[in-house]
Amino acid sequence: MANCRTKFGTLKKTRFAPTPSGFLHRGNQFNARCVSDWAKSEDAILRLRIDDIDRSRFRHAYLEDVFSRLKEWGIQWQEGPLDPADFLKHHSQHLRLQRYSEALSELQEFVYACTCSRKDLQKAQNVEGCPNKCKEKALDWIPNQTALRVHLIQGTETWQRPDGGWESVERPALVPDPVVWTREGLPAYHWVSIVDDLDMGITDVWRGADLLESTGIQRQLARLAGFQSFDQIRFGHHELIADEFGNKLSKSVLSQNQ
């Protein structure tokens, strides 16, 4: 099991950021303990940030489960919602839609409208940008018809970990460009995570190894938007907890079995 309890200077704030799209599992428990143990060892502030921007699988039972599980696991946080009611009233990401939209203006010259659906992406292989080459078409953004993507360049992203080490990820040329605003008219995960981490003053993040590519994407997006301070956030990626078959634990699968 990975160990995240290491000393590195004077650190300020980290976060645990579950999504209420299913019941929390052992993988979430490991990440929560990793973040909590590290925060205690560094005398850092721990913030609870619940990522509810995608409401397609949201259920109130999943939201309640976040708080009951953290209590069961003995995880204590110093910032963030106190309970489900406090979260919905004061901390939901849907209360910050204007903020995400205002921040997106910093990316205005880099975004392009895209008609490609998830099925289009699934069918396409080794695609650069998007299957329908929407960037070259200079389409208008039309709610419920087009999403907004940003073209990212091929290359290697390298950053420092909270424990002082270094990590990197290679972005291949033939991969889809990330969505920053969905066709449903909502900010996408990458954009929300960047703005929240900056606004909340996050200095250090421990997340699962499955989000290594996400870190590289978010660093590039933040740089294009001129958010230079995002480069100062240290990201560390720990091993994943697998099921008995060696597969990554999935909340969507586990929730169907509850």
Structural class category: alpha/beta
Relevant CATH superfamily: HUPs
- CATH fold name, please? Rossmann fold
CATH architecture title: 3-Layer(aba) Sandwich
Query: What is the CA-CA span between the terminal residues?
Result: 26 Å
Concise overview:
This protein has 258 residues and is an alpha/beta fold.
Explain the layout of strands and helices:
Blueprint: E1 13-16, H1 26-42, E2 45-48, H2 60-73, H3 84-91, H4 97-104, E3 111-114, H5 118-123, H6 134-137, E4 147-150, E5 155-160, E6 166-171, E7 179-181, H7 189-199, E8 204-208, H8 212-224, E9 234-238, H9 251-256
Parallel strand pairs: 1-2, 8-9
Antiparallel strand pairs: 3-4, 4-7, 5-6
Helix pairs in contact: 7-8
Architecture overview:
With 258 residues, this protein is an alpha/beta fold. It has a single domain, classed as HUPs (Rossmann fold). The protein has 9 helices and 9 strands. Strands 3-4-7 form a 3-stranded antiparallel beta sheet. β5 and β6 form a beta hairpin. It is globular. The two termini are 26 Å apart.
Could you name the key traits of this structure?
Rossmann fold, two-stranded parallel ribbon, alpha/beta, disordered N terminus, 9 strands, disordered C terminus, 3-stranded antiparallel sheet, 258 residues
